Hints:
This protein has helices at residues 4-20, 36-43, 48-54, 91-94, 96-103, 152-157, 159-165, 167-188, 230-238, 276-295, 317-323, 333-336, 339-348, 359-370, 424-439, 450-457, 470-478, 496-504; strands at 57-68, 73-80, 83-90, 110-119, 125-136, 193-194, 200-201, 212-216, 221-225, 243-251, 263-272, 299-302, 305-308, 313-316, 379-385, 394-395, 398-409, 412-419, 463-469. By secondary structure, the protein is α+β, with helices and mostly antiparallel strands. α13 (339-348) packs parallel to α14.
Amino acid sequence: MTSGSELIDRRMEKLRRIRAGGYDPYPANYDLTHEIPRILDDFSHLEAPELESARHRVRTAGRIVSIRGHGKVSFAHLSQGGGRLQIYVRRDRVGPEEHDLFRLLDIGDFLGVEGELLRTRTGELTVFADSVQLLSKSMRPLPEKWHGLADVEVRYRQRYLDLMANPRVRSVFVRRNRIISFFRRFLEDRGFLEVETPMMQTLAGGATARPFKTWHEALGIPLFLRVAPELYLKRLVVGGLDRVYEINRNFRNEGVSTRHNPEFTMLEFYQAYSDYGDLMDLTEEMLKGLVREVCHGLEVEYGPSTIDFSTFRRYTMAESIREFWSGETAPSAEDLMDSTALETLLRDRNLEVPPGTSWDRMLGLLFETVVEKHLIQPTFIHDFPAQLSPLSKRKADDPRFTERFELFAGGLELANAYSELNDPEEQRERFREQLIDREQGNEEAHEMDEDYVRALEYGMPPVAGEGIGIDRLAMLLTNSPSIREVILFPHLRPSRRERDSRDQE
Length: 505
């Protein structure tokens, strides 16, 4: 079996011969008349007699993904833009010099070709080449199995190989792009303005999460990669931008899993003179439109489940616990409002409840344990305990809860939204409560942001805001089991080679 280094040596020798023949193996450009997907779209319906009579000429290019034939006649397939097209190279047609050049090519090389479109005896649409030009020599052999690069580590670390070898991967990221494009159109059609807010912030605010920390040499201050753009976007609402949105990268220094990556993409938007109920309605309308456009219907396959976006269920957090309770008799509504009863319910499920755990946190923990795994169909969970939502407005009829909702589908949390707290004194007090929580060991608790409170003191209108996780939504709409499948370059632990290289430095 030929080793990888031997294959590279062979390609190096071919490169030397190509240069010796007077050819530039890396030219600067190649003028195309057609990209391969356009050729397939425009001419695939034509039969052989129509192609022969019309004599359609094309000048196209792509990566060689197969070569076969010997002597004076050869066939190859070029891949470009998600399409694949056969070319037919004959010595008496391209001339001896270009034919000799073609004989030095390998799978993985980029090739330009000009000629007429015909069909072979097998009926395959083919470019009958008049000329060929090497556009880039590939010095490493491509993955052996073109129909599936199976090594997950290689796929994620060397995404360029994954894109070459696995056609589905390209389709995943094309669909991801369509999701983002739809959101932009939807929001801008409703008067939202796209903005940009700082990715490096003096305070890590807008979410309860552990941040990444860095240092700015010129200013001599610590900075944090943002965990959320929320507080800056709401400052813009204070300034008079009533409808704003940002498609943003957020960074959280937390665990890595099939649902979590240290950096991720969010859509976050704010609508003045609205509350969380308005955003529930808007979100339902938006996601129905999105799924219909990118999935061509309202049903989506995700793992073993079929997700139906024609219907969105709605439960308060307390209602959902009673609805999805399994086993013994479900707790009463009164039990869920009582700290002692909640602690008993948690301990009965063998869950640890540290001394001093608040009622708010116990209710949230019970929800996570009992309910989340059942949220396969699109479901809004609303009315969260106040301590779990330091930036949201309390419910007027029950201040233990806030006007907040999360959207779930496929067992994934997809969105988080609430009626924004715009009372500066209450916001300052909520921040103080978070500081106490932080002093007791919660590294994710929110810090005091005096400038944000000062902004609220100038007056912020009633406003509702929402964040939608683009990565998780892409998982759902592409039937991808891991977030790493929908992020082009996910973060991974260093490979053994990378660790050894660092140890030697």
